[in-house]
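Next comes one such specimen:
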Amino acid sequence: MRGPTRKARPFIHSEKLESPGIRFKVQECALQFTMTTVWKDIYSNKDLLTELEAIAIDKALLQGVLMRTKDRPNSSEVVNFAPFTLLPSPVPRALFEQAKQVQEDFNVLVDRISQNPFFLEQTLSSTIKVDDFIERLFRIHREVQSEGLAQSVFLGINRSDYMFDSRSGGIPSLKQIEINTIAASFGGLASRTPEVHQHVLKALGKTEEASKILSNNPSFGIAHGIAKAWELYGSERAVVMFLVENVQRNIFDHRYIENELWNRNIRVIRRRLRDVYEKGSLDGGKCLYVDGYEIAVAYYRTGYMPQDYDKQTWEARLLIERSKAVKCPDIATQLVGTKKVQQELSRPLTLEKFLPDRPEAVDRIRATFAGLYSLDLGEEGDHSVNIAIANPEQYVLKPQREGGGNNIYGAEIKEILEKFKDRTERTSYILMDKITPQPVKSCLLKAGGQLKISECISELGIFGVYVRHGKEMVLNERAGHLLRTKATEHADGGVAAGVAVLDNPYLV
């Protein structure tokens, strides 16, 4: 009679494979195989895909995974589904957990750097000489610092973005692309997408797989942080002001967060920076008023690009910064999100200066860093320029910009660096190792687009929220996740740019 059955160990063919090193290689192979074969049977059935497409789109519309149209970006009379994947994309479980665990460390790091004006000035000294946008931001920062901060409550809503690097040919590793400290988007729509993929999998009869789609509600966590800041501001009649763009295709992403605040009986208004310039004022206690409303929290969903500003809106930004209102972010925290600060943090012992009481956090954060290189004038920067010109395909050239679609790749890196090789203009960029994920097949659904299976890569974002009152950190949480997927033919660009689509992680 046979004894208890044992699960077969994949790829193990002899006892010689029992050494630790060989077992690790086996695990690598198993993970890579699983990553590239999830949903393989479905993607090979065109008739089934067509049927699923209609089911998925209708469910997305029912769930409110919506955007306004390009033709009528400021009207909700005509809307369409926001782009998304037909099926969730495989994500290594260990790397997902790693990204979650380090987020609260990044919250603390961002907050502490924002309180160190000397570090910001020293780090950005070369950048502000050649980048007018960063220089204008820093000028306001310096003016507010010299005047003295009026606010005592500080709110951070950030999103740390990662890819799964497979350049070594082994098991994928988690590498940070950037941390967004202003207008970190898609927390609202990401809260609505899990049920779409759950429904599609159930329609396929894959109820067990559907149950593995992670619950996710960034809009709740983001609103929780805003509500805490509003509470600590200390005036029940004061409101939360969303600072918004002139063109509002992504308004429903905002609305889900707004609705969470309304459910807490917190009044929300929406205004542009120009509205603040025309109708904003400070009273004797530096309380900010706009259209007669006292502003408790100014939450930026704009203000991260040079085109967001002109002479009047720069004045509006200064007015807000000088006020008692809680800014999300205040201008120091926005500067923390610059690529130059990201590069400086990768230097030996820099993290230890900000987190001397958290050595484990230093290790967790440093483990996510890709190679980052200064382009400042001098021997170090010259070396970075030379290696990038010699091997441009191995690097990404990153300007001090947010919003996607700004990075530079391949032959264009060589062209720009040869042009600015001995000029100060090169200091407006940093150089970063190019992260190379393992492509997987996916089906991207876009309004008006044809059903198509593409080789794709994904980008994982983890939302973090913190609130500091004076010197005390009263809230420090991760607030959910965002997965975006795009075809490998596109080097750069996000959902708003029409390149990437919304997705959910399927942990493997």
In short: The CA atoms of residues 161 and 480 lie 12 Å apart. The longest strand covers residues 453-469. DSSP finds 19 helices and 21 strands in the chain.
